[in-house]
Design goal:
Its cofactor is Mg(2+). By secondary structure, the protein is mostly helical. The protein has helices spanning about 10-25, 30-40, 45-55, 65-90, 100, 105-120, 130-150, 160-185, 190-220, 220-225, 230-235, 240-245, 250-260, 265-280, 280-300, 310-320; strands spanning about 90-95, 95. The protein contains 16 helices and 2 strands. Strand 1 (about 90-95) and strand 2 (about 95) form a beta hairpin.
Length: about 325
């Protein structure tokens, strides 16, 4: 598998984003800067700024404003993860103790808010900031809807695939979509190009979250940076489990009971359900759905003039599908 983030072109430009992020976060109250910088140094794929950079490269654009927008979108993502960890009561993020675990929920919430508001304020300095902030505001509203939908669906075995898609579209796909769209927005390229990049990002975002949810079942703790099967154990019913519950099988009522009683035997109950998900072919079905989104993302790229950067974006779609972390 080719990791596009290691491509010389992207690696160089992402290093500039990383340096900008570190400088940006170090400028502020010492405690908040320490926590924010710690979150940043814990790692992360930096896919969102990579997509901003790639879509901008399509128009042969790369300057300080591109770095700013790419960096601020990564910080908006970081802020959402800090709040997400509070809601999920997660102990680890990328192998590092979460802020709310190290301190309190209130501390973590304020650190997340600080990062978000500071990032939004910084975007007033870039050209076409009205349009950029409008897109981000609309997306942030939908992200909140997705988070609320997730909180309201915990341990709910009756939810549908449509419910799941609603949730992950808002929690993940829409932000990735506007990151991909941003190059066309900043180049003022027009609605057709904007829509093509947006749809590319939307399908990659859906595939990315589905893959993340699949890896929660399949990978080791060290690979995903959090305990495996943790999502299900904490009540988050993701696509493989929903696909299982859509089937007719002998143990269905027992599975419903275990979920509704919130897994009285903990990991043992979760392991039992995981074995049924595998037996009934739901991991393979999830892979097929992911692959369909990947193909739709690639198909959208045919609407754009073929350039070296669109070839790299096609490779990016493959990377999302094939990644193991």
């Amino acid at each position: 598998m080719k990791n596009i983030l290691q491509h010389a072109f992207l690696k160089k430009r992402l290093s500039q984003v990383e340096a900008y992020l570190m400088d940006f976060l170090s400028d502020g109250p010492a405690f908040i800067s320490e926590q924010a910088s710690g979150n940043l140094s814990a790692g992360g794929k930096r896919l969102r700024p990579a997509f901003v950079i790639m879509s901008s490269e399509y128009y042969n654009r790369f300057d300080d404003n591109i770095i700013k927008v790419a960096s601020m979108l990564e910080l908006i993502h970081m802020s959402s993860l800090i709040h997400d960890d509070i809601n999920d009561n997660a102990d680890l993020r990328r192998g590092r103790q979460t802020i709310h675990t190290a301190f309190t929920n209130d501390v973590a919430a304020h650190v997340g808010d600080y990062i978000l508001i500071k990032a939004l304020r910084h975007l007033f300095e870039v050209p076409n900031h009205e349009r950029i902030l409008d897109l981000i505001a609309d997306t942030a509203v939908e992200m909140c809807k997705g988070e609320i939908a997730q909180l309201n669906s915990m341990f709910d075995w009756e939810q549908s695939v449509a419910d799941y898609n609603y949730r992950i579209e808002r929690k993940t796909a829409l932000l990735i979509a506007i990151c991909c769209q941003m190059g066309a927005v900043m180049a003022e390229a027009g609605a057709s190009d904007e829509n093509a990049f947006y749809q590319y990002g939307y399908h990659l975002g859906m595939a990315f979250q589905m893959k993340d949810d699949l890896l929660d079942f399949l990978n080791s703790d060290a690979e995903v940076g959090k305990p495996t099967g943790k999502d299900l154990e904490t009540g988050l019913i993701n696509l493989p489990t929903i696909l299982l519950l859509n089937k007719d099988f002998a143990e269905k009522e027992h599975v419903r009971h275990l979920i509704s009683t919130q897994f009285p035997n903990g990991e043992k109950d979760v392991g039992y359900i995981v074995s049924l998900i595998k037996r009934e072919g739901c991991f393979a079905e999830t892979e097929k759905i992911i692959l369909n989104h990947i193909q739709q993302a690639k198909d959208v790229l045919t609407q754009l003039e073929r350039k070296p950067i669109t070839d790299l974006m096609r490779s990016g779609a493959d990377f999302i599908y094939e990644r193991a972390y």
